[in-house]
Amino acid sequence: MKPFLFLGTRAEDDVAQQEYDAVLAGCGLRADELVRVRLEQGPLGEVDLDDWSGIVLGGGPFNVSDPKDLKTPAQRQAEADLRDLAERVVAADFPFLGACYGIGVLGGLRGGLVDRRWGEPIGALPVRLTEAGRQDDLFGGLPAEFTAYLGHKEAVARLPQGAVLLARTATCPVHAFRIGRNVYATQFHPELDAVAICDRIDAYSAHGYYEPHEQELLKSAAREALVTEPVRLLARFVELHASV
């Protein structure tokens, strides 16, 4: 089998490792079958799509809607690399699954718009599939409504031209979409469990996702949530796209 490529952007080593391990487990792959590149550490470099079965992009603190003068050189480099890769992936209809930051990367293509109108606080919320989502090859195996962990400052305000809306919440109109047949973005995090989201709440306490006094309350609510379905997307993505 050709390996899958995992792209990360988290500068915190422990959180970056936890994210990769969670995606690895969710995909049901070995480490040599899910090769990791950390974009916050350096340029992506050349990616030959023929070398890979598919690409998974993780989340992180980067936002495409951040003011330009506040973006670090690493963020600007990652955005440029991912924009170029996304254009190629969409043109080739190459298997791609971007979680959270994938919304920012894909959401601005083809006339789409990503802004801060539909941010949601860290926690767990019901996600509802659209009719297209219920019929989709990747999402169709999930219940029509399921609970997922999320937390984001930006979201898609206008879908890219030709994109298919797959899921939404009551407070964010775009939680997943597809471009072509094989290119996906989710606003929620399919890899997260209660332990991981609590660790992220701690790790990003100074990043403006919540007020300091909310930290323990958010963790308590996250532990009480029953989140079982989103991780199935990762294994399904591998099932659909693993190639020799």
What is the typical, i.e. mean, pLDDT? 97
- Give the number of domains: 1
Structural class assignment = alpha/beta
Nearest-angstrom radius of gyration? 16 Å
Helix content bin:
25-40%
CATH H-level superfamily: Class I glutamine amidotransferase (GATase) domain
**Strand content bin:** 15-25%
What is the name of the CATH architecture? Answer: 3-Layer(aba) Sandwich
Principal-axes geometry comes out as: globular
CA-CA gap between termini: 4 Å
Low-confidence stretches: none
Number of strands: 11
CATH topology (fold) name:
Rossmann fold
Q: Profile the largest sheet.
A: 9 strands, mixed
* Main sheet strand line-up: 2-1-3-4-11-10-9-6-7
Order of helices and strands: EHEEHEHEEHEEEEEHHH
Write down the CATH class. Answer: Alpha Beta
Describe the structure.
The protein is α/β, with parallel strands linked by helices and 244 residues long. It has seven helices and eleven strands. The strands form two sheets. The chain has a nine-stranded mixed beta sheet, with helices on both faces. Strand 1, helix 1 and strand 2 (34-38) form a beta-alpha-beta unit. Helix 5 runs antiparallel to helix 6. The model has no long low-confidence stretch (mean pLDDT 97). It comes from Nocardioides renjunii. Residues 49-192 form the Glutamine amidotransferase domain. It holds the Pfam family GATase. Keywords: Glutamine amidotransferase.
Briefly say what this structure is.
By secondary structure, the chain is α/β, with parallel strands linked by helices. The chain has 7 helices and 11 strands. The strands form 2 sheets. It has a 9-stranded mixed beta sheet with strand order 2-1-3-4-11-10-9-6-7, with helices on both faces. The chain has a two-stranded antiparallel ribbon with strand order 5-8.
